[in-house]
TrEMBL record:
Family per record: Belongs to the methyltransferase superfamily. LaeA methyltransferase family.
CDD domains in the cross-refs: AdoMet_MTases
InterPro entries: SAM-dependent_MTases_sf
Segments of this protein annotated with the region Disordered: 1-27
Annotated PANTHER family: METHYLTRANSFERASE (PTHR43591), S-ADENOSYL-L-METHIONINE-DEPENDENT METHYLTRANSFERASE (PTHR43591:SF102)
Protein name per its UniProtKB record: Methyltransferase domain-containing protein
Compositional bias of kind Basic and acidic residues: 1-10
Keyword Thylakoid listed: no
Length: 325
């Protein structure tokens, strides 16, 4: 897989130097914030969404530590991509943010685009109460039938490979709910780690990554789904589809000040989220005990911090336009 942008700069640096661091129509499929939605499921010392929790919709927690990690992940994406969106949008009137999480993308987009009405949807009601007047949030499942009364001009989604089973269906829903000329953009990880020199081979980190992707597959999720987004968008009817790949160091092993900053941020992101990413998948999908998970993660954390392991993530942005005819 050919990488662009930061890939050519991602050379090994074994030294320890340079370590700086309006109103929106509601969809009738969405759910109001009743007490049952706020009654989060408690498991493994974490909390998880209550809406459709029995259907295995999403395996990550939604508690305060995870919310703080999601906001860090947002900062990483902004630094890596350079903006909230790469699609060539111009003053979109209605904007939808699928899987909005803490709502940080929707809030910042609404602030930057006061002409837009921005709706963020998610399984968990973890968004703040005080937001720009042109920003709104609803509890909704993207994989339900979409019944929005008015189409959108821009639909955005990020980091949903762990939540969506069928992206082809989701892209079809996006297409049906966009105005002619409207844009869609999905940004996500390719969950299988890459390594420039084989230094990850045989490590606990490699084993963890393989088990993570396998566990997602057992839940019906494809950790490599982003590699199919471009083809699936074209098949859904989108035109002018553009796929852009970025390389994100997994820790500060790479040369260059910017690469070290990104690597440090991403290492912190994964260390902070490691328990949440692992415990439910490994216990429920692989049959591990909680104790086995905790012992294993000691070695994984050690490897994540090891700058002699030269691993990186492929991050991708894929956007396309609905034809005007």
């Amino acid at each position: 897989m050919v990488l662009t942008h930061r890939r050519e700069q991602i050379d090994n640096d074994s030294s320890d130097g340079d370590s700086s661091l309006g109103d929106m129509d509601r969809a009738s499929s969405s759910v109001s914030a009743t007490s049952s939605v706020f009654a989060f499921v408690e498991e493994f010392g974490r909390t998880y969404h209550a809406y459709k929790e029995g259907e295995g919709k999403y395996f990550m927690p939604n508690d305060i530590p995870e919310q703080e990690r999601l906001d860090l992940q947002h900062s990483i994406a902004l630094r890596l991509f350079g903006s909230l969106a790469l699609a060539p949008i111009k003053e979109p009137r209605r904007v939808l943010d699928i899987g909005t999480g803490t709502g940080i993308w929707a809030i910042e987009f609404a602030t930057e685009h006061p002409e837009s009405d921005v709706l963020g949807t998610d399984l968990s009601p973890i968004q703040p109460d005080y937001v720009p007047p042109n920003c709104h949030f609803e509890i909704d499942d993207v994989e339900d039938e979409w019944v929005f009364s008015t189409p959108f001009d821009f639909i955005h989604s990020r980091y949903m490979i762990g939540a969506i089973r069928d992206f082809s269906k989701t892209f079809a829903s996006c297409y049906a709910n966009l105005n002619p000329g409207g844009w869609i953009e999905f940004q996500d990880y390719y969950a299988e780690f890459q390594c420039v020199d084989g230094s990850m081979r045989g490590t606990a980190l490699e084993k963890w990554n393989n088990l993570l992707v396998e566990g997602m597959a057992k839940m019906g999720k494809n950790g490599r789904a982003v590699a199919k987004f471009k083809r699936q968008m074209v098949e859904a009817g989108f035109v002018d589809v553009v796929e852009t790949k970025f390389a994100l160091p997994g820790n500060p092993w790479a040369k260059g000040k910017e690469e070290k900053i990104l690597g440090t941020m991403q290492m912190t992101n994964i260390l902070d989220g490691l328990h949440g990413m692992t415990v439910q998948l490994f216990v429920k999908m692989h049959g591990w005990s909680v104790e086995e998970v905790e012992v294993f993660l000691v070695d994984v954390r050690r490897d994540l911090k090891d700058r002699n392991i030269h691993f990186y993530y492929i991050m991708m942005s894929v956007y396309g336009r609905k034809p005007e005819y």
